[in-house]
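A.,

Following up on our hallway conversation. Structure tokens first:
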């Protein structure tokens, strides 16, 4: 091999490390069972065979695969209804029970909707109670007293000259805005 991704090399090294360490652990168990403190070649062979029997499955022979296929194919598939349009599977057409066609039944939808409605009403009641408490606090008289100074505003009548100057300033800002917009 002349070209491979780094990830493939790392995956291969991880697999080999895991396989070798598990084979050596099995060999250590075999050696302890035999009453030896050290692992020998026969223990490693036995550990490797134990891993092969438990973790790796040999594919069936061609004859075995043919026999299994014939046994499965003896049962005919259910007939489909010959009609126009999209064929949605029915209970008769499905081969396993792990299916769910269409929306949930109305009783489940009604229960979910009732639960959501009750939760929304509880939230609205809590918000209304919090608002009522805030209004009550804002309107109750202060026990300390109101030491704020009265605020007064000096309102003067605008003259025609003031309005004209304000309008000219507004038009100038608008013209600058339009010029900037045109430049872009």
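Then the amino acids I'd put at each of the 184 positions:
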């Amino acid at each position: 091999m002349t070209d491979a991704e780094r990830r493939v090399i790392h995956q291969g090294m991880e697999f080999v490390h895991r396989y070798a360490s598990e084979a050596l652990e099995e060999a250590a168990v075999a050696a302890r069972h035999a009453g030896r403190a050290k692992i020998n070649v026969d223990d490693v062979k036995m550990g490797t065979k134990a891993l092969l029997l438990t973790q790796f499955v040999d594919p069936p022979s061609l004859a075995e695969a043919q026999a299994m296929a014939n046994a499965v194919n003896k049962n005919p598939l259910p007939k489909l209804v010959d009609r126009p349009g999209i064929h949605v599977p029915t209970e008769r057409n499905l081969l396993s029970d792990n299916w769910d066609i269409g929306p949930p039944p109305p009783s489940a939808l009604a229960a979910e909707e009732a639960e959501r409605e009750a939760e929304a009403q509880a939230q609205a009641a809590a918000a209304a109670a919090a608002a009522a408490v805030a209004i009550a606090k804002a309107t109750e008289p202060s026990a300390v007293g109101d030491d704020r100074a009265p605020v007064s505003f000096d309102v003067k009548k605008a003259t025609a000259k003031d309005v004209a100057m304000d309008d000219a300033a507004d038009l100038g800002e608008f013209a600058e805005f339009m010029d900037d917009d045109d430049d872009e």
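Residues 36 and 117 are 72 Å apart (CA to CA). Curious whether your intuition agrees with the design.

B.
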